């Protein structure tokens, strides 16, 4: 046996106290490092290489800003809020991530999936408060201010704020729900950062995330169809929203607005054609074509001068005010209503941000701090919630555009924020006449990447069938039930798949590769020779309580010997022999002599004298696993068959020692444990 190193005993209490003293101490150097870590911009901005970086940052910032404005206005439909709130969200998220983020390239801001999740909560709470979800009512004509206004909805809701009873209209209540949800989600993310709970993201596999994104994309697509064809149907809520919405669409298809249908067809053709040409010639283009902005500008001009709203009743965006609304603390009472909904929102937002940050860091050879990313995205939600903004996350499409246009640092995010600020201060009222069907077209075309995942299903199935099943289940649950339930179903189903795979892992009998000291699966490889009088069994999973029975069944099946049944059979014959001997008959019930009976029992039923268990794939043992190995050791010993363990890792060896597998003084350990299969086989051959 190899000699194990002596472990130095660590006084955990002293270590904990030392860490506590270190974390609680406050020195100027430590305070400086804390501030620098909390605001990474203080580390990299003084080292900013202006001549080398500025052109790429300005270019990518302008391009992202131009893309961000139409997307922000469009995604307000998903969130069930006015476009001005989407612009606020985009502005504040870029500024805060510039200060706190560790990724140089990721684009944080408004994101379709997050907007959808916010919109579902807002719609539910509006419905419970008694508001009408029909958002196709003509907008009120006024000075564009965002004061509480009951003209757009006759129902009002009473909120108790600081002891005062305040009447709140639909728009006021909707943004109140969104900001409360955003604030709680941000608090969750900061708490996860403090307690270092970033490992939660490990349970969201690539298949779960892809399935969730695709299922949510189908929900987003369904929610936009009514704007595409200009029909007025109630916004469906609860489980099965996708199916209910499509039923309502087909019931009201005869009410379709011809003006909206024609506009949608033209916009989709233009957007898809431009996207396809951009993808085909992207290596020749220095920056992506601002197709969305061009479509919005042209559509707004046509709608305004053609009076499409007045003549054809085409639904338009309405008044978008300029400037900023005074900050407001999110309502605590509303936080309690949305506390549960904020948890999946916080997890999804964090996971998408960290995964994109890690992708960019790997591609451009730098490192990020996942815990700081959690703080960054958390404060991107907490601080803007005081300024009438809703939840944000990193967005894949804008991140890819950012990297392709020469982005070097998060200075590009500040440039994008300045473009949004320009719209907020001066240009927002220009989009009054913009048709909602145009915004719906922009949203639907932006889903091309997620919907193209359906084309990858055959390839995914060829690579891994279980992952494909996880993708299908997550996608179906996200689309047919709800996005939150779909995410939960995907996580649970993915974990269940792992459990099932460890409950019923691969098992095999090994044969020897000719003229070598290596052994492999006899069913998978040709020309392997069996070892006389020795069976070599491999179990490719940890041995624990959930797969104990499968381990025993597989062992008995492959070795063609159940020691318990064999022991019972022998006892039965011995009992019959004693009965015959008492009667003076020296033959057994089968008419054979005693020696012949023993010969029959041994040679026909047992063709091996040693069982070697290959433990190389057994990563750990629990108490049940140790007891299982002790059980087979005893059962096979009763049949004069020795059980030898090979290739055990140190963790398994320690578990066996603590469980008493090798006896009290470990004296027989050298005859029971081997560091290679070949050594165990050689030992078995040398035994008499």
UniProtKB/TrEMBL annotation:
It holds the Pfam family Sulfate_transp. It is found in: Apical cell membrane. It comes from the Eukaryota. Keywords: Cell membrane, Glycoprotein, Membrane, Phosphoprotein, Transmembrane, Transmembrane helix, Transport. Belongs to the SLC26A/SulP transporter (TC 2.A.53) family. PANTHER family: SULFATE TRANSPORTER. This is Sulfate transporter. It comes from Thalassarche chlororhynchos (Atlantic yellow-nosed albatross).
């Amino acid at each position: 046996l190899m000699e194990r190193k002596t472990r130095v005993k660590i006084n955990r209490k002293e270590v904990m106290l030392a860490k506590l003293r270190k974390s609680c101490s406050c020195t100027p150097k430590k305070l400086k490092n804390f501030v620098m870590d909390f605001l990474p911009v203080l580390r990299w901005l003084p080292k900013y290489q202006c001549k080398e970086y500025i052109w790429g940052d300005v270019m990518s910032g302008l391009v992202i800003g131009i893309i961000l404005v139409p997307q922000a206005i469009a995604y307000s439909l998903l969130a069930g809020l006015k476009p001005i709130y989407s612009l606020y969200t985009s502005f504040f998220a870029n500024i805060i991530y510039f200060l706190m983020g560790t990724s140089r390239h990721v684009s944080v801001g408004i994101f379709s999936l997050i907007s959808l999740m916010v919109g579902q909560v807002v719609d539910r709470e509006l419905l419970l408060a008694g508001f009408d979800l029909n958002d196709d009512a003509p907008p009120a004509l006024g000075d564009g201010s965002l004061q509480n206004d009951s003209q757009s909805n006759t129902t009002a809701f009473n909120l108790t704020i600081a002891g005062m009873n305040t009447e709140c209209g639909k728009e006021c209540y909707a943004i109140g729900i969104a900001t409360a949800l955003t604030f709680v989600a941000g608090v969750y993310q900061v708490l996860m950062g403090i307690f270092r709970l970033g490992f939660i993201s490990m349970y969201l596999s690539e298949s779960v995330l892809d399935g969730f994104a695709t299922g949510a994309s189908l929900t987003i697509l369904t929610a936009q169809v009514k704007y595409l064809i200009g029909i007025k149907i109630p916004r469906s809520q609860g489980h099965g929203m996708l199916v209910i919405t499509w039923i309502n669409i087909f019931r009201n298809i005869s009410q379709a607005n011809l003006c909206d249908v024609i506009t949608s067809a033209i916009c989709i053709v233009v957007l898809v054609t431009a996207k396809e040409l951009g993808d085909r010639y992207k290596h020749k283009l220095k920056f992506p074509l601002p197709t969305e902005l061009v479509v919005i500008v042209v559509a707004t001009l046509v709608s305004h001068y053609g009076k499409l709203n007045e003549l054809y009743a085409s639904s338009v965006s309405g008044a978008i005010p300029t400037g900023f609304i005074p900050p407001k603390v999110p309502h605590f009472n509303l936080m309690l209503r949305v506390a549960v909904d904020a948890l999946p929102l916080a997890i999804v937002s964090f996971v998408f941000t960290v995964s994109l940050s890690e992708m960019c860091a790997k591609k451009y050879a730098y490192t990020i701090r996942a815990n700081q990313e959690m703080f960054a995205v958390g404060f991107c939600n907490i601080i803007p919630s005081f300024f009438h903004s809703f939840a944000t996350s990193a967005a894949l499409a804008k991140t890819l555009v950012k990297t392709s246009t020469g982005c070097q640092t998060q200075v590009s995010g500040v440039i994008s924020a300045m473009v949004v600020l320009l719209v907020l201060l001066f240009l927002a009222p220009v989009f009054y006449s913009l048709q909602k069907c145009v915004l719906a077209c922009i949203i639907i075309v932006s889903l091309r990447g997620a919907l193209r995942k359906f084309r990858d299903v055959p390839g995914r199935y060829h690579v891994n069938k279980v992952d494909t099943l996880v993708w299908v289940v997550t996608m179906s649950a996200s689309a047919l039930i709800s996005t939150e339930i779909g995410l939960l179903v995907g996580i649970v189903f993915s974990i269940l798949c792992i459990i099932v795979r460890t409950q019923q892992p691969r098992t095999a009998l090994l044969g020897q590769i000719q003229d070598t000291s290596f052994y492999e699966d006899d069913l998978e490889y040709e020309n392997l020779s069996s070892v006389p009088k020795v069976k070599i069994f491999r179990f490719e999973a940890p041995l624990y309580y959930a797969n104990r029975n499968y381990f025993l069944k597989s062992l008995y099946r492959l070795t063609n010997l159940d020691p318990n049944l064999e022991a019972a059979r022998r006892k039965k014959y011995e009992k019959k022999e004693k009965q015959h001997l008492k009667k003076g008959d020296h033959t057994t019930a089968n008419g054979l002599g005693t020696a012949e009976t023993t010969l029959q029992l041994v040679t026909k039923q047992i063709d091996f004298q040693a069982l070697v268990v290959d433990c190389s794939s057994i990563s750990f043992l629990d108490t049940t696993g140790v007891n299982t190995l002790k059980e087979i050791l005893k059962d096979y010993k009763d049949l004069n068959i020795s059980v030898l363990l090979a290739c055990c890792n140190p963790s398994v060896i320690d578990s066996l020692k603590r469980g008493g597998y090798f006896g009290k003084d470990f004296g027989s350990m050298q005859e029971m444990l081997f560091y290679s299969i070949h050594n165990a086989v050689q030992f078995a051959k040398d035994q008499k």
